[in-house]
Amino acid sequence: MKILSLEFENLNSLKGRWKLDFTQSPFAENGLFAITGPTGAGKTTILDAICLALFHRTPRLKSIAKGNNELMTRGTGECFAELEFEVQGKTYRSNFHQKRARGKHDGALQTPTCEFADADTDKVLETMLTKKTKLVEQVTGLDFSRFTKSIMLSQGEFAAFLNANANDRAELLEELTGTEVYSLISERIYDHFKSSEESLNHLKAKAEGVSLLSEEQIQALTAERETLEVEQKRLAEQLKEWQAHLSWWKDVTKAEQTIAASEHDLKTAQDELDRNQPSLERLANSEPAEKLRPMHKDLKRCEQEINTTRAHLDNSTKLLAVRDAEKQDAQTKLTQSSAIVELVKTEQQDQEKIIDLVRPLDNQIVVLKDKQTAAVNAANTLNEQHTQQRNQQVVLVQETDALKQQDQLCTEYLNTHQADQHLEKYLGQWQAKVEQVRTLERQHSEQLNSAKQALCAVGAQQTIIRSAKEAKATQDKTLAELVLVESSAKQQWEALQGNTSEQVLNAQKDLLEFWNRNTHSLLEINRGFLNAQQQMHAKTQAHQTNTQLVDKLSKEREVLVERYKERETSLERLTRLIDQEGELAKYRAALESGSECPLCGSTEHSIEQSQDIANLVAQKDRENLELTAIKKEGQDHRQQLDSLAPMIAALNDDIQRAQADIQQAQLNWQGVVGKLQQSLSDFVGMAPELALLTINDLGNEATVATFAQQCELQLSQSAQQLKALGDAKAHYAEAEKQRLSVSVMAGKAQSNLELAEQRLADLNKQNQVANEQVTQIAQAKEQQWNALKESIVQTAIEAPELEHIDDWFTAKSQASSTWQQTKQQQADIEKQLITQNAELKTLDDKLSSVEKELATLTKESESLVSELTRVTAERTELFGDKDIQATSNAMKQKVTEAVSAFDAAQLVLNRSELEHRTEQTKHTGFSDELVSKQSSYTQASNAWLEALKTSPFEDEVNFEAALLDEEVRTQLQSLKKSLDESIVSAQARLNTAKTTKVELQNHENAKAWQEQNQQQVEEATTECQNAQQSHATKIGAISANLETDNQNRSNQQYLFKQIDEQQVEFDDISRLNSLIGSKNGDKFRKFAQGLTLENLVYLANKQLQRLHGRYELKRKADDGLELQVLDTWQGDVMRDTKTLSGGESFLVSLALALALSDLVSYKTSIDSLFLDEGFGTLDSDTLDIALNALDNLNASGKMIGVISHVEALKERVPVQLKVTKHSGLGVSEMEKQYKVVT
């Protein structure tokens, strides 16, 4: 990763917008540069801006969000940071931006915004805060922690790894290199080991609890099952005979019951017919009137239509007169509208002639007014210019006088303070020397504190030794107590086991679980058995009902067929008779009074005595209607029979399925009960106290439910007992583990005591060295301060005391700045005086020119006013003050309205003529329709009177009295049909039942079957069924035992195979667990961290070779993550890292920091490095060594930025990024070339 450019705004003390382009000069030619400036100027802020642009946080501020931003410069309304960097040849741009409300410095902080983009294509890749940081980590391969330890070594964390203890160093290694995954691997391996061990033990216990039948037992059970199957077949044949005998008795009983019920129904139907005879006679009397009803209805309809048409004709006559009057009125209005149109058009032509004369005058008036307005505006503008120039002249005169006074004041100040002009030259040198004195003072203070701390550390170490001794005694005491706890837990575990092993309890639990699973099957079988019985009973009843209905419908249909044939024969006879009467009517028409008949020769022709053909036709119609009714009724019966046939077939299928379900449930029940009994007989050990179900319990829902509840209860008790035993075992294991853990801790306590005593000796030695260094630094500080005071006195300035030096520098810096500012101010004033004198001369010339232009414009304006007055008077005389366009538009509107009125009158006339013609047509139509209706009425009346004469009714009143209401007639017809059907149906059932009884009595086995009554047959059938069910239960139990034995044999082979496979897996995971597995993941994690530390030490030693060949880092052999230093100048003595001096610690820390940078950058090449460290603890030689090392790193292609205020470093590094602090303002700035001008 290489940083290309950084741009930021308003961060900490660096107010304003700044940009550093590391691809341009001077950074492009010099990859090593220094960021310099006084303390608090804002050097580290540049590194904060880099972190903010990438990760939205800094090493010093962990969170920058909507409600918290301590990084934004005080008194500003926004802050911004943007970084461009290169990773693997691609350039990216990342920024962070936050504003305050309304851009005001006191506004509320708003939600930050961000952007991560491809800088080559400007394609935005992410804008969400959380997702952007993850994308940065993905692209760079560095999270915030790795970034601050590989690219940017932030202030205060430079020597963090060197000074960390073992635990903190482990956390740092895990955080930097991601070794937390090894902890997870170690935990997973341990969990896998425990799981594999439990699975293996469970399989072994399961294999020990399985028993098999012997060969003799299998042969005996097989022979017994074959015997029972033969006996079962014999019982099935015998049961079939008894069921046929019982069915015969049931059919006889049913036939006798049907005969009695049918005789009763027949008598009831006959009585109901007699009771309703008067109503039926009324129905018969209404038949002649019903035949005349259509003709009478037609006559009434004709009367109604004549009345309606006559009313329409009268209304049309009145409306026709109204339409004629409207037509005349419309003609008159049209004539008036035509005259008005002609008058308005003439008036419009006269007006247009006048407008043609007025329009040129109006145009001339507009032109004159525009010219006059322009002249007035120009004069006003010149007047304003004249006034402004006069005012400017006055202001310039006043400003010139003021500048002359300021110039005089500046001259007096500069003459009075001539000595201040040289302060700028010496202040920087004096401040650098003071900084050196203060550095020595800080070193003196630090060494003095170190000496005090060393003395305190000696006392503290003595306290630690006492504590270590107390800790060892405490650990020994705790170990003794835990031995007793372990013994107690072991005794409790053994007491819970008692005489029953855990394997036996598991076997009992498995048996109860087997029973519980099969009990659920028995519940389902029992429910299926009860449902099948209910279905069979319901389907059998429905089958009997539908069969009876089929018999009834079949008998009724036979009766209907006979009636249909009789009516069909009668209809044919009537048809022939009517045809004959028609032929005879022709001959009767040819007879003449007194002439002989060609058939009989008689001269007297009694035509009235001939048969009435109308009565024959009416009789034929009645026969047709009755034939149609019989046919429809027969078809209804046929449809009912057709629909009943599939229903009966379906019911037969349902009954057979229910019987099959019952038999299957019995077989399933026998099989499952047999399995339960066999599992009990095969169980080795103390079986559960629970009575098993038997074959006879099928159908007894309460017994099955009780067994299921007891089984669940005992299973729960068994599980609780096993859990208690497991808890006790776990408690014992935990006690043993705690005892071992405390034993290890006791050993560590002894070790800690020995280390503390060795540490005390080292601290005493360090205390002596620190006291010597305090004296040396105090002497050096005094020499530096005396040299500085002598330098100040030589400039004729009184030297201040060291404690007041900052105030003295501030005052002198202000005096120097004031002198320089005054000098610059005087030069600026002299320039302004020259400029203002020139401006005064220019203003005088402009004033003269404006006054001449004003006189010319005044004359021109007066001429325009005179001409405008004349033209306006002429226009008023012709047209007044009327507007041409408005007057013309009004006249056009008047013409338009007159034409519109004429067009409307024309439309009204046209509509009136159309309505008059339409109404005339309607009137003619109604007249024609009335004539037609009257003709139809005459025909209908004649036909009605003719039919009434031939009917049995004297007049229309008698006819209407004979008519029945349609609803009453329908009810009576339904009653007659119902009574007839009841009688026929009852008679048919009676005949069928008697026939059935005779057939049953004539059965070939009837005499033999009558020797035993129905009750005896039922008892024999039940006894045979019970015997068959008993045999089936025994067969099911034997089959279940044999099947269970086969399953156990098969399962046992598979079980042994599973045990072998599980043993192989357990051996593998056990070996792996012994190497790297642990419950908390420590074993493998520490191993991986040790390897990482080895690599880090190797990389750090390579850096130390470049920095200083004297030192080499080593790992302590007796402590996994502790470090020590090999000093080759002292005979390869091993030194603890805590004994290193400040300069030595810096060199080793720098080497470790550079090594960490190389280690963390395993995913990304690190081409930029920033060091935020003072280098103040190094002497000149060591500083040269460190800078040479940085030069070497720079030569390898890395860009390196160093933050420091050490003078020697400033001299060695040619490229410097200076940060200057403004005294008293709280803000700083960099050189102007880096400022962004907006």
Short description:
One of its GO terms (molecular function) is ATP hydrolysis activity. Helix content is 75%, strand content 7%.
Structure overview:
- It is a single chain.
- The chain is of the alpha/beta class.
- Among the domains are: 1-142 and 1169-1238, 3-Layer(aba) Sandwich (Rossmann fold), CATH 3.40.50; 215-284 and 965-1014; 431-499 and 701-793, Helix Hairpins (Orthogonal Bundle), CATH 1.10.287; 522-590 and 612-682, Helix Hairpins, CATH 1.10.287.
- 75% of the residues lie in helices and 7% in strands.
- The radius of gyration is 64 Å and the shape is flat.
- The chain starts with a strand and ends in an 8-residue tail after the last strand.
- The relative contact order is 0.14.
- The model is unreliable at 607-611 (pLDDT under 50).
Note the topology.
Layout: E1 2-11, E2 14-21, E3 32-36, H1 43-55, E4 78-87, E5 90-99, E6 113-118, E7 123-126, H2 129-140, H3 144-150, E8 152-153, H4 160-163, H5 166-177, H6 180-208, H7 215-275, H8 277-285, H9 287-416, H10 423-497, H11 502-590, H12 613-682, H13 701-793, H14 805-879, H15 884-950, H16 956-962, H17 966-1001, H18 1006-1009, H19 1014-1076, H20 1082-1107, E9 1111-1115, E10 1123-1127, E11 1133-1136, H21 1142-1160, E12 1168-1172, H22 1180-1195, E13 1199-1203, H23 1207-1212, E14 1215-1221, E15 1228-1230
Parallel strand pairs: 3-13, 3-14, 8-12, 12-13
Antiparallel strand pairs: 1-2, 1-4, 4-5, 5-6, 6-7, 9-10, 10-11, 14-15
Helix pairs in contact: 3-21, 5-20, 6-19, 6-20, 7-17, 7-19, 9-14, 9-15, 10-13, 10-14, 11-12, 11-13, 11-17, 12-19, 20-21
